[in-house]
Amino acid sequence: MRVAVLAHEQFPDRAKTAVGVLRYADHDVVAVLDRETAGTTVGDHLPDLDSAVPVVESVAEAPDFDALIIGIAPIGGGFEDSWRPDVRAAIERGADVIAGLHYFLNDDEEFVALADEYGVELRDVRKPPDDLTVAEGVARELDVEVVLTVGTDCSTGKMTTTLELVEAAREAGFDAGFVPTGQTGIVIAGWGIPVDRTISDFTNGAVERMLKERADEHDYLFVEGQGAIVHPAYSAVTCGILHGAMPEHLVLCHEAGREAIHGYESFPIPDPGRVAELYCDVADPVAPTDLLGGALNTSGLGESAAEAALTDYGEAIGAPAVDPVRDGAGRLVEQL
Known about the structure:
By secondary structure, this protein is an alpha/beta fold. The chain is built from twelve helices and 14 strands.
C-alpha cells in the first residue's frame, strides 16, 4: 500500500508514529508531510534509513497514495485543526485516512461526510474492541515465553526496541511474535489493542487476551510496553501491561541524557538501576520477572560518546545494554 505520512512541525523527533512506519511498516511511503522541513528527504533526518522519500509541505505536493497516516501522537491524543486541510485533501483524492489519536475521525461530521462522498475509509486504530473484560490472571500459564519492554519515561524507544528484539530473535532462529499495544505498533502490525484507550479495569485483560490469541503461534512473544512506572500521568497503563502480560523477562528502555520526565520536567527520572528494581518489585507478587537487559537511545550522541553512555547504562542497571538502532538487539536475545 502506498502511504503518505502527516508529521507537521514534529518530524522526526516528536513524530514517533511517522518514524515507526518508515522504519518497520510494510508500506511504500511516498512522502512525509512537514511544513517546517519541506524540500528535504527522510534520509536527511534519519541517516540510518538512507531514504530518498521526499518531505513535502502538503497533500497537494505528494505523489499518488492510497492512505494518509497521521504520524503524530501528541500529548493527550488530540487532533490539531491545522491538519484538517491535508486530511480533507487526502479524502478528496480518494485516499483512506488512518489515525491513532484519542480523537476519532469517525466522530468528525465533516470527515465522515467526505469519506462517504468519496468512498474512502476512516480508520481509528486507537479504538479498542467493545467486548474487553478483566484479566483471568493466566498469562504465565500459556505455553510461550514473554518479554516486555518497559521504560524510564514515555518515548524512550519501547516500540522500536520490541520490533528490533523480534527481528533479532528471528535471525537467531527463534519463533518470535510481536504484540502491539500502542497506535504505532498497531499501524505497523495491522492488529493489536490500544491499551491506553481501554477501561482501566480491562487493561490487564486486553494484554492477556492478545497473548492468548498468539501464544499457540510462537515460542516467544515480545510485548510492546507503554508509559513508565514512574510517570506522573501514564503509570496506570504501564502497571496494567506489566501484570497482564506476566513477562518472564523485561528490557528497560532509556534515552541517553534525559534526566526528567518529558513534558513534566519537575519530575526527575530516578537512577535507571532503581527504576529496574521498581519494575521487578511491582511484578513480583503477580509473576516474578527478571531484567534481560537495557536499550539506550543514543541518537543524540557521537559514536564514542554513545559507547561510553552504553557502558554507564549497563553498569547502572547491572545488565547488558545496547542501542537497538545502532547495534541491533542481538546481544539481548543472546540472554534468552
